[in-house]
Design brief:
single chain, about 375 residues, alpha/beta, Carbamate kinase, Archaeosine Trna-guanine Transglycosylase, Chain: A, domain 4, eight-stranded mixed beta sheet, five-stranded mixed beta sheet, 15 strands, about 40% helix
């Protein structure tokens, strides 16, 4: 990579498969879903599609569309009062069909076919179901269909409360093997500090090392309409970067132009990928679930993991937090409570509590015959995870 401008200008030419995420803050107005925005977006994506680029669209907006339908049928007062989980899920059930109808109609005007895909985090937790979803998307893309993905909010209790489609977009990047992630937002790009609180904040042209970025200090607010905010967008961009995939965070408001964003003077912020990409399987392993517990290691084990690429042995463990079974995803922390990474544990929390600090030769004396000497094998470990 010679410089950020050259990289930005060459991205569209190199990209053959793109994930585009658009959030509620872009799609909605005070009257609900803005159909003009959907039509404008469909037209721009259709032009990219005409160039032979495979496109998957990850779209929010079902709850907002549902509120509009409820207002039409029952009055604006009831629609504005929607806040608790059952009501939001019901609104999503009403709105998803309307949202998909608008997309299908808009893309149809440009000669493009769409397909609705509703995913849940739980549905991708099991590796076989993850691969089934991948195969379905591969088939649709081979037919030149544009899949439109959203979370299945009506059944995703935890995801609707805490999840966001920025994370779903990054997951989709790994799911289909995309080589570019475009995140359309209500902001002009990523600012060096919160522009709502600092008048001197400036938009970054590029972020070369997102792993070193302190996104907590930069992003402390969420948009009114969406559920993510810039924090979740940068966390998603960091996950994409781990896959070796760049992210373009750019405004989708007003008369936006995705194609213009790829020019040397185009708007938005380009997040560059990491030089060494993790495997799709490790990516799935690290982000298919929330960590069920925390394993704290001593300084020697932390150094062995981070600088020598070693597995985590029970001898290096000093503390166990949480209750989990074998095969669970756990967070691994250094003595100062800094997260080193995440991994799949070969032992339950109870077993690890019994063997922590023990040498390999002592494990069988405590537990009896065992199949593994490692607490977490390096093949099931992802360092610097964007949790």
């Amino acid at each position: 990579m010679s410089n950020s401008n050259d990289t930005r200008a060459s991205l569209l030419k190199k990209a053959r498969r793109i994930v585009v995420k658009v959030g509620s803050a872009v799609l909605t107005s005070k009257d609900g879903i803005n159909r003009k925005t959907i039509i404008r977006l469909a037209g721009q994506l259709a032009r990219l599609h005409d160039k032979g680029i495979g496109i998957v669209l990850v779209s929010s907006g079902a709850v907002a569309a549902g509120r509009t339908r409820i207002a039409e049928a029952l009055g604006s007062g009831i629609a504005e009062a929607i806040s608790d989980l059952p009501a939001r899920q019901a609104a999503s059930a009403l709105g998803q069909g309307r949202l998909m109808h608008d997309y299908d109609e808009a893309f149809g005007w440009f000669g493009k076919a769409t397909a609705q895909i509703l995913l849940t985090r739980d549905g991708l937790r099991e590796r076989g179901r993850f691969l089934n979803a991948r195969n379905t998307l591969e088939q649709l893309l081979s037919w030149n269909v544009i899949p439109v993905i959203n979370e299945n909010d009506t059944v995703s209790v935890k995801e609707l409360q805490f999840g966001d489609n920025d994370t779903l977009g990054a997951t989709t990047v790994g799911l289909i093997g995309a080589d570019l992630y475009i995140n359309l937002t209500s902001a002009d790009g990523v600012f060096d500090k919160n522009p709502d609180q600092h008048s001197d904040a400036s938009c970054l042209r590029s972020i070369e090392n997102i792993a070193a970025l302190d996104i907590n200090s930069m992003c402390d607010g969420k948009t009114a309409s969406g559920s993510g905010g810039m924090y979740s967008k940068l966390r998603a961009a960091r996950r994409a970067a781990q896959l070796g995939v760049p992210t373009l965070i750019v405004s989708g408001k007003g008369r936006f132009s995705i194609e213009q964003a790829f020019t040397e003077e185009g708007p938005g912020t380009l997040v560059l990928p990491e030089d060494h990409a993790v495997s799709s399987k490790k990516f799935w392993m690290a982000y298919h679930d929330d960590p069920a517990g925390t394993v704290t290691v001593d300084s020697g084990a932390a150094k062995a993991l981070t600088t020598k690429g070693k597995s985590l042995l029970p001898a290096g463990i000093v503390q166990i937090q949480g209750c989990f079974e074998r095969g669970a995803l756990v967070r691994i922390c250094s003595p100062d409570n800094t997260t080193i990474g995440v991994g799949l544990t070969n032992y339950s929390s109870d077993e690890l509590s019994r063997i922590k600090g023990l040498r390999t030769s002592q494990i069988e004396k405590e537990l009896g015959p065992v199949h593994y000497t490692e607490a977490v094998h390096r093949d099931n470990l992802l360092l610097d995870a964007a949790i």
